[in-house]
Amino acid sequence: MRAGAAVAAVVLATVAMAASSSAAAPIVLQDQAWLAPTPDPAAALTRAPRECLARTSPQIEAGRALFSAPTVLGGPAARAGLSCAACHTAGRTNARFLLPELTDRAGAADVTSEWASKLRGDGRMNPVPIPDLAGAAMRPVYGAAQNPSLHAFIRGVVVEEFQGRDTAPVIDALTAYVAALDAACGAEDTPLSLDAALADIDRALAAAADPAGDPHLAGATLLAARHLIGRVAERTPPRPAFAKTRADLARLAADIGAARAPDG
Fold it and tell me: Which of 76, 121, 191, 251 lies 20 to 30 A from 103 at CA?
């Protein structure tokens, strides 16, 4: 299954008219739910830092897809649509992140929020700056606890901080992806493109199809691919001219759902 021609006519961003800095503005794109007030939300929602990977592999590509999927997390965060990428867009710092349940200032998050997890929750709003993950593999320690293991740190974030499932292949893939993030590309925002969005879907599907991969990881990656399709679909105008495109997206998502491993 390839995304390719199925979404060739998709308009990647349709928020220029619908998005607004007004507090009463409707949520058109899910990312608006944690977008700090800005005079130009359309620009903020159609640009992102450039991602830079020092290397790649099917496992890293699976981790890359999972990094953007709310299905990795659990509890209220997952229900709100949050993913690792919400705070760390392309692995970098999302300086525009502002979700009242997790922070009272942009570019920060409360890692001991009771909203996200009662295991780590301390009953106080005390957000800390969101770190840049590029070059994380070169750091000696991670987080406030100064954890010397990147793998253990990521597992703690997923399982303890956000109530996600403790699934070894998923944690391993996320760790491999974060370890491959490089700072060489710089952190400047670049325009999002349709080609890149379609490539993200294709990369996720290719990783899920890796014959040497773990079956559970394949199922989780397919689920992440469906989320990526949803991100394209929500940017497709609900107008007659795009009816076929929207139907093609829905069909592709349904095909992926049918292909998922039973335990994925």
Answer: 191
Give the list of residues 6+ apart from residue 130 with CB closer than 8 angstroms, or none. 87, 88, 93, 94, 95, 97, 107, 108, 109
Q: Measured at the alpha carbon of residue 79, what is the angle toward residues 107 and 82, in degrees to the nearest 5?
A: 25
* Residues in a beta bridge with 214: none
Structure tokens at 153: 């740190």
Q: Which residue has the tokens 């679909």?
A: 233
| Number of neighbours of residue 251 by Cβ within 10 angstroms | 11
Rounded CA-CA distance 158/155 in Å is 5
For the stretch 131-151, pLDDT in tens is 999 999 999 989 878 889 999
